[in-house]
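dumping this here so i dont lose it
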């Protein structure tokens, strides 16, 4: 079973993502605090991370940058999730393991992006 960590400061969104992805047989851990991401990666060993950009007092882009600078996490695919549609092109510059999903998202689009990211990894 493929493992996914979803990071978002909105508990409702995390619950929805978890329900959807578990319905497609993914093992999902949710985090409302981005500061716990690296500990969760070490424990859970995810195949993919769904990462909100605006995490209260944290920036998902900075977390992704820190992941890319760490040998243990640099190859984990990331899908940024954000309500800001204008940011999508900027993330393509972060590498081939990065994708973007705009909020509110369509369930099929979420499943498709997750499947594509996992197949490319």
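and the seq i came up w/
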């Amino acid at each position: 079973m493929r493992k996914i960590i979803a990071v978002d400061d909105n508990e409702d969104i995390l619950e929805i993502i978890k329900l959807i992805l578990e319905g497609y047989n993914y093992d999902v851990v949710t985090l409302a605090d981005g500061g716990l991401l690296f500990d969760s990666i070490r424990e859970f060993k995810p195949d993919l991370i769904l990462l909100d950009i605006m995490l209260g007092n944290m920036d998902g882009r900075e977390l992704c940058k820190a992941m890319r600078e760490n040998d243990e996490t640099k190859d984990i695919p990331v899908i940024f999730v954000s309500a800001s549609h204008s940011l999508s092109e900027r993330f393509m510059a972060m590498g081939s393991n990065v994708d973007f999903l705009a909020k509110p998202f369509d369930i099929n689009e979420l499943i498709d992006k997750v499947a594509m990211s996992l197949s490319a990894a």
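The mean pLDDT is 89.
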